[in-house]
Amino acid sequence: MPTFLKKTPKEEHKLEPWKILVVDDEPDVHAVTSVVARDITFLNRPVKVYSAYSGTEAIEILKNVPGIALAIIDVVMETEHAGLEVVRFVREDLRDKRMRLVIRTGQPGYAPPREIILKYDINDYREKAELSGNALYTLIVSKLREYKDYTTLDKQRLLLSKLAFLTSLVMDLKTDEDYVKFVEELFDGIAQILEVDVKIEHRKEHLVNHKAYKRVVWSGLGADTSLEFNLRTGYSSALHFDVTFSAEVEEYFSKILDVFLNDLILEVENNFISRDLTDTLYKIVYIISEVTETRSLETGEHVRRVGEIAKILAQEMGMEDLEVEYLEIAAMLHDVGKVGIPDSILMKPSQLSEEEFEIMKHHTIIGHKILSTVDHPLFNMASTVALYHHENWDGTGYPKGLKGEEIPLCARIVSIIDFYDALRSDRVYRKAYSEEETLKFLHANNGKKFDPRIFDIFMKKYEQIRKLYQ
């Protein structure tokens, strides 16, 4: 881990306020919302309210004001469906999935149909009489928290893609100019993802005592604004980098950068850039997979176990070592597409309706789209697993209804593991099944959901697998 060699006094950074858009043709609604919002400070950030008195005015604000976290929208304004047009504009024209949308109406008869709520991911519906005082305060804070969580997950996805792409370039770094360009591209990309500015300075250093040179040093613990590190480019020479962000970097992201930079530095220091940074990717994948599972009220242990069992089965099937390693990591990302599923469905404490289940099925397609943006053998396998791990051996699965060996082998392996672990684990809508009940389900679905050959291997290695649950 990094050695913190020094701490510098932190400057006070004025945090940007949370932006809320109120869309309503009644001035009193704006006045009440502004009064309530004035008393809200969430994560040390105040709230700024933008007011629109028609759907048309709201769309103009949305075009010109980026980063709106929450929009509270009346349905009936200049037209009966003016508010729904604003919702459509956010989700379709702006393609903004982060913004939380709340419908607030004084005319319940004009409430949006359920299919509209699902299609456009409307996050809440309230009657105006409900929203005053404490109720409005609670609503705003809860939606800001949802926005913060969704934004963090989205940034995690983008950061993982960026680090994975740059990892593939490390083998080509040879000169000081290559290293400088690499670091500048790395931190420019990170700053863009984290929505901050960054200043990068470097200088060449002569290392008199090469054992004492600095690794990664942040300016302090927790939420940091700057760091410094050396990349050794010769036995007694190094490039020293000072990186300063315009705003605090959350501890979560600084930990990811610590992992990545320390592994990178060790590779360059030894002048033997001869292996892929798979270990680094594994750590980052685990962190992100754990956060994804936590959002769906599952545990990070689900992620770990799915990966470990995939490794056990792949080794028993005689896969090459690199394929085994890739499958272990890919299996951990099988449900990353759940980041795109609305909270109302993901966290529903009862069985999903048919309509909701159709939306839930899209997590396979979303996960494939996320992971296929990275051109790397690991992520090629991960995107395949994400897309096909709910296909069934008899052709009754989704999203494409593939049958038998039409289903990629990696997805067939993860399918039985995910099914088994899901039954053995508590879910938001039910308690875990017993081991005996789970095995009955497994046997009943052999040749239906599962490849019989993989089922036989699973049962052959079952004593090793069951130890993971003790």
Structural class: alpha/beta
Question: Widest sheet: strand order?
Answer: 2-3-1-4-5-6
Global Rg = 25 Å
**CATH third-level topology of the largest domain:** Hypothetical protein af1432
CATH level-two architecture of the largest domain: Orthogonal Bundle
Modified residues (4-aspartylphosphate): 74
Domain Response regulatory: 19-143
Domain HD: 299-423
InterPro entries: CheY-like_superfamily, Cyclic_di-GMP/3'3'-cGAMP_PDE, HD/PDEase_dom, HD_domain, HD_GYP_dom, Sig_transdc_resp-reg_receiver
Task: Write the topology of this structure.
Elements: E1 18-23, H1 27-38, E2 41-42, E3 45-52, H2 55-64, E4 68-73, H3 82-93, E5 100-105, H4 114-119, E6 124-127, H5 134-167, H6 176-194, E7 198-206, E8 217-218, E9 224-232, E10 237-249, H7 251-269, H8 278-295, H9 300-316, H10 321-332, H11 343-346, H12 354-361, H13 363-371, H14 377-388, H15 409-424, H16 435-444, H17 452-460, H18 462-466
Parallel strand pairs: 1-3, 1-4, 4-5, 5-6
Antiparallel strand pairs: 2-3, 7-10, 8-9, 9-10
Helix pairs in contact: 2-3, 5-6, 5-8, 7-8, 8-9, 9-10, 9-15, 10-14, 13-14, 14-15, 15-16
